[in-house]
Amino acid sequence: MENMPGMGDMVPPHHESNSTDHTMTMMHMTFFWGKNAHILFAGWPGKRTGMYVLALIFIFLLSVIVEWLTHSRWISDRESCGNNSRGVIRTIVHGLRIGLGYLVMLAVMSFNAGVFIVAVGGHTLGFFLFGSRLIFNKSAAKDFPPPTSCS
């Protein structure tokens, strides 16, 4: 930086520590195993194994719900409602799906291997149930979930 005009005097800010500073926790930047992770919120799930398992179940269910919202038909094109109502409902469902998808993504960014595995497993199971049409064949898929009436 010495050769760049105006940049030679730049010094990183000095951080003074005193007794009132909060301790900084190290954030993992590679995958790790273990229950001591911060998933979505600081301090959650904590250091208890039961809360970690609950967090894994939560992420798994979120992943399944994202796939369900992706592959379900909430409004049939044959509905008698206007294009505006149909578009608003589809937009709300799309926003919900994207929001939940980003929550799953942020959970995976905790770099906890267990969270990664349950997120992929939830998306896989959700696709198998709702996207592959193996469980719900094409004729049954038309009515699952039943289209919402606009009236």
UniProtKB/TrEMBL annotation:
Membrane spanning stretches = 50-70, 91-109
The listed locations are:
Membrane
Cellular component GO terms held in the UniProt record: plasma membrane
Tell me the first and last residues of the signal peptide: none
Q: How does it sit in the membrane?
A: Multi-pass membrane protein
Q: Which UniProt keywords apply?
A: Copper, Copper transport, Ion transport, Membrane, Transmembrane, Transmembrane helix, Transport
State the InterPro entries in the record. Cop_transporter (IPR007274)
Q: Give the PANTHER family listed for this entry.
A: COPPER TRANSPORT PROTEIN, SOLUTE CARRIER FAMILY 31 COPPER TRANSPORTERS
Tell me which family the UniProt entry assigns to this protein: Belongs to the copper transporter (Ctr) (TC 1.A.56) family. SLC31A subfamily.
Q: What is this protein called?
A: Copper transport protein
Q: Specify the taxonomic lineage.
A: Eukaryota, Viridiplantae, Streptophyta, Embryophyta, Tracheophyta
